[in-house]
UniProtKB/TrEMBL annotation:
PANTHER family: ELECTRON TRANSFER FLAVOPROTEIN BETA-SUBUNIT, PROTEIN FIXA
Superkingdom: Bacteria
Provenance organism: Muricomes intestini
Protein name: Electron transfer flavoprotein small subunit
Residues spanning the signal sequence: none
Pfam families: ETF (PF01012)
CDD domains (alphabetical): ETF_beta
Domain Electron transfer flavoprotein alpha/beta-subunit N-terminal: 22-215
Taxonomy of the source species: Bacteria, Bacillati, Bacillota, Clostridia, Lachnospirales
SUPFAM superfamilies xrefs: Adenine nucleotide alpha hydrolases-like (SSF52402)
GO molecular function term, any single one: electron transfer activity
Length: 264
């Protein structure tokens, strides 16, 4: 089974800059890491790859610096990677992003399954996987916890979803697109040896010269949704530190609660 994994590099912390005009994150201002839920998608892909003697290829759209995350994904076990990068793709919303990713996957070749993380740690829209499925005219199953594959039925796969203490098994034909929930499995980690090997694995780079997408379909021009404003919320909460014996701290806590009630 050949599996494509959509991966996003997200900021390591909340300490990021925002463009005052576009209100988009300036990702070059913060160190990046693989989106946590995407690590679960990579693990699910690697398990299927090992079961079926297939191939796992990781795709991402971003600046040249994103190559570091792709090499890490190959160090974890992915066979190849694809970086889709071009200034004309910058600033795109989820729709424009999904169009570019779908075109990149189609340019690379055919896949039996396409996986993504269910949510990103920065935007948390949960939209890109479903949109890629739409642009690829493929069935989509969102927020899954597992995948079952039976070699006696090579044209289908079963997605496992858990909801309100119930487990659902959803059978779908291939090629399919699925988003994998954060924490649904235990992602493996790269080793020093595997990271050295990763640097020898194929890393393809696609620009719009290769994808040939119209200007009105990509970037800000191809984004029907825009961020009109951004601001840092005011935090009026404060911490009070107590010291003393348990009895003294309990008395101070009661006094603080009484004072707060008196302000209401």
């Amino acid at each position: 089974m050949n599996i494509a994994v959509l991966m996003k590099q997200v900021p390591v912390s909340n300490d990021v800059s925002v463009d005052p005009e576009t209100h988009a994150l300036i990702r070059s201002s913060s160190e990046g890491m693989i989106n946590p839920a995407d690590l679960n998608a990579i693990e699910a892909a690697l398990q299927l790859k090992e079961q079926t003697d297939g191939k796992a290829v990781v795709f991402t759209m971003g600046p040249q610096g994103t190559q570091k995350a792709l090499i890490e994904a190959m160090g974890i076990g992915c066979d190849e990677s694809v970086l889709i990068t071009d200034r004309c793709f910058a600033g795109g919303d989820t729709i424009a992003t999904a169009k570019v990713l779908a075109r990149g996957i189609k340019k690379y070749g055919e896949f039996d399954l396409i996986l993504s993380g269910a949510l990103s740690a920065d935007g948390a829209t949960g939209q890109v996987g479903a949109m890629v499925a739409e642009y690829m005219d493929a069935p989509y199953v969102g927020e899954i916890q597992g995948i079952k594959y039976d070699e006696t039925d090579a044209e289908h796969v079963v997605a496992i979803k858990k909801y309100q203490d119930q487990e659902y098994h959803i059978k779908t034909e291939l090629t399919a697109v699925m988003s994998v929930c954060f924490g649904s499995n235990e992602p493996r980690f790269a080793t020093l040896r595997s990271m050295r090997k990763a640097k020898t694995k194929p890393l393809h780079v696609y620009t719009n010269e290769e994808l040939q997408m119209a200007a009105e379909d990509i970037g800000l021009s191809g984004s029907p949704t825009i961020v009109t404003d951004s601001f840092e919320p005011e935090n009026e909460r404060r911490a009070e530190m107590f010291t003393g014996t348990p009895q003294e701290m309990a008395a101070k806590l009661k006094e603080l609660i009484d004072n707060e009630k008196g302000k209401e």
